[in-house]
Amino acid sequence: MLYDLDPTWVQTFVENAPANSPSVGTPPNDGQLLDAYSKTVSSAAAAVSPAVVNIQVKGSPAGRRGEGGGSGFIIAPDGFILTNSHVVHDAKSIEAHLPDAQSFNATLVGEDPETDLAVLRIDSARLPFLTFTDSNKLCVGQIAIAIGSPYGFQQTVTAGVVSALGRSMRAQSGRLMDDIIQTDAALNPGNSGGPLVDSSGAVIGVNTAVILPAQGLCFAIAANTAQLVAGLLIRDGKIRRSYLGLAGQNITIHPRLVRYHKRPKNQGILVAGTEEDGPGRRAGLAEGDIIVAFKGSPIYSIDDLHRALVGAEIGIESTLTVIRGTELVNLLVVPEELPPRG
Predict the structure, then answer these.
(1) What is the pLDDT of residue 17?
(2) Across the chain, which distance is largest between two alpha carbons, in Å?
(3) Dist CA 75 CA 197 (whole Å)
(4) At the N or C end, where does the chain have fewer CB atoms within 10 A?
(5) Catalytic residues, which ones?
């Protein structure tokens, strides 16, 4: 379709065009093609990359693993590095390779397999480091940028969005990890332990897992969890948790018992066994009991009990409520500190 345009209007339109607009027949340059999204990713990657390290590990003395690797990032100028526990667990030796080609032997400050986090330290100072942002303020759809060393390719940058918040997943220890960020920023083996950052370069999570058969299903430990755990590992070398010394399984309680005891839900933990001389057995916990509450708070699953047994409960006498037969029984139990996993 042809339009009959006023020549004066056409001349005015051309004269008022932006100075950097490509003229007819002139290909645009790279600067003009770099849109706002590209500039955001590029600037964030440039700011973050100097603090992202490649981690190489060698197997344990028992030879249970060979050589491997992952990623990490510097969280303090005096050489503290945050990574995943599964990257360095049981390693005989650990090396950290910085972007400027420096290599350091790293020592394990502490690790927490339950949250899949570990802190290393290298003998260096005045290093570039990353800061955390408040992961509670994240929004689904905002930019997420991952930097790491997938398959050993250092300083690899991928970008996507925050796909979902508040996911849960299992650590290799079997404990449920809450407050997990889902992203579609591509991750591969070797990205583990690297930072997931926002458009300003602040850390929103620690990359930890990917579902390999799928596409765009990647997960990171939220920054708030990572910052808390990292601080405790630097201070204490470990995360203290309590335990009762029992083996159990989630079950559905018979409807008659639920109605009779006016329980809010029909779920609890069936005790399958107790540790000899453990806190549970000393409190009178027996095989066949159904745990339904701890300190008056309902317990519906093993994960609920794990969440309740924090370090602050160590040595504190508390009430453990069980259904024994048809009766509701309150036991006084003193949780002990959970020993480190081998």
Answers:
(1) 55
(2) 97
(3) 13
(4) N
(5) 86, 116, 192
CATH topology of domain 242-337: Pdz3 Domain (2.30.42)
Instruction: Spell out the domain ranges in the chain.
Output: 48-121, 135-236, 242-337
Please state, in angstroms and rounded to a whole number, the distance separating the CA atoms of residues 313 and 337. 9
**Fold category of 135-236 in CATH:** Thrombin, subunit H (2.40.10)
Distance CA 41, CA 130 (A): 16
Q: How far apart are CA 176 and CA 206, in angstroms?
A: 16
Do 148 and 207 contact (CB within 8 A), yes or no?
yes
Tell me the DSSP string of 195-244. Answer: EEE-TTS-EEEEEEEE-TTSSS-EEEEEHHHHHHHHHHHHHHSS--BEE-
The helix (run of H) or strand (run of E) holding residue 302 is helix 302-308
CB count in 10 Å sphere of residue 53: 31
Paired tokens of 74: 């510097």
Please state the CATH superfamily assignment of the domain spanning residues 48-121 in this structure.
Answer: Trypsin-like serine proteases (2.40.10.10)
Give dist(CA 34, CA 36) in Å, integer.
Answer: 7
The whole-number pLDDT of residue 212 equals 77
φ, ψ dihedrals at 175, nearest 5° = -75, 145
Q: What is the DSSP letter of 51?
A: G
The sign of the dihedral angle between the CA atoms of 111, 233, 195, 122 is negative
What six digits make up the tokens of 39?
Answer: 């500039």
Contact call for residues 157 and 139 (beta carbons, < 8 A): no
Structure tokens belonging to residue 139: 């929004």
Predicted local confidence at residue 213, as pLDDT: 78
- For the chain, which residues score pLDDT lower than 50? 1, 61-63
At 237-267, the pLDDT tens digits run 999 999 999 999 999 999 999 999 999 999 9
